[in-house]
Phosphatidylglycerol--prolipoprotein diacylglyceryl transferase (Humidesulfovibrio mexicanus), 265 residues
Amino acid sequence: MLTYPVFDPVAVQIGPVAARWYGLMYAVGFALAWWLGRVRAARPGSGWTAVHVDDLITWLVAGVVLGGRLGYVIFYDPAYYLANPLEIASIWRGGMSFHGGVAGVVLVCWLYGRSIGKGLLEVGDLIAPLVPPGLFAGRMGNFINGELWGRVTDVPWAMVFPTGGPLPRHPSQLYEAALEGLVLFAVLWVYALKPRPRGAVGGLFLLGYGLARFFVEFFRQPDAQLGFVAFDFLSMGQLLCLPMILLGAWLMLRHRFTAGGRAAV
């Protein structure tokens, strides 16, 4: 068994102003997305400019935060927030849903694409490889906070989390950071180096994330207020991944069955 390295959730404090690790991880994720987006936009024939990336990332911050928070409220604990509606705005206390964040991102991509004459799939293909580094940073934030830990286990790398009781558990945050962050980023970045049919890069992200998250959920402790929501072994996260997997596979394969598949940088 490994010893969980207890962290102070506050990274930096100056007087009454405190910067928490969780918030800093979000900032790191957005900064990496902005930088990688500029790298992709600089490629010959990309059809994108640095200004496009700057504007898009700015709006995506709002989409991720609002969508992620509302997604958590709706999918994971609606009864609590119906009884305590003022708590919805308390983002600093935790409670963000990746799938809600995806919904916010899709809405922003659609609206921004319309404003510059580009389609949703084209915008999605640009940003898909930019997302996994942010997922890595976010999962590391979960690990630092000692939240979203895994199920009880006796594997040699199990840890006892301060908020998870006395039994050792899977460090599922690190599993997700590795698969959804590092592995998915490497796969997407290499795949996007060549022109692909429009929607294929975004489709690979949806498919890859959905499969990785679905797998790791078997090691992650389900949310206490929900437990297993289907067949006594599937979590809410797994159910929400199923449409992502199906949509991602369709986006990657649709050009084989239609004449409309077009290459996208």
